[in-house]
Amino acid sequence: MVYFSSVSENTHKFVVKTGVRNVRLPLRTSDVAPEVNEPFVLCVPSYGRPGGSGSIPPQAVKFLNNPVNREHLAGVIGAGNTNFGELYCIAAEKVAAKCHVPVLYKFELMGTAEDVSKVRDGLEEFWKQNSLHRI
């Protein structure tokens, strides 16, 4: 799983709890983004802005602007806050639509123990069904 987490560390805490192999995107957009040469799932938080513009973290945009990374994107998991209403996990929806991959799951803030279990089990099944290597 590749993920971005802001200084709040909410997404980071969730990803760590899943126990899956992961790569964290740099906090600063000026830092070099990694290049991933195998199938991966992106976990991305949403930011609540009017109309949803600017909802995708610029670090995730920079990462996905690399054609190699886009080619290996297999799915998206959204992190969000239900206080955003219709914009809850909008970043995952936008990335999925733009990159033609499925939204696999959505969770709020740091997620619950049930969310962690569902994502861990769901990713295992996703990789099996798609004959992809697990990262």
Automatic annotation (TrEMBL):
Q: Which Pfam families match?
A: Flavodoxin_NdrI
One Gene Ontology MF term: FMN binding
Q: Which domain of life is it from?
A: Bacteria
Q: What is the stated purpose of this protein?
A: Probably involved in ribonucleotide reductase function.
Q: Which PANTHER family match?
A: PROTEIN NRDI (PTHR37297:SF1)
Recorded family membership? Belongs to the NrdI family.
Q: What is this protein called?
A: Protein NrdI
Gene source species: Rothia terrae
Its ancestry begins with: Bacteria, Bacillati, Actinomycetota, Actinomycetes, Micrococcales
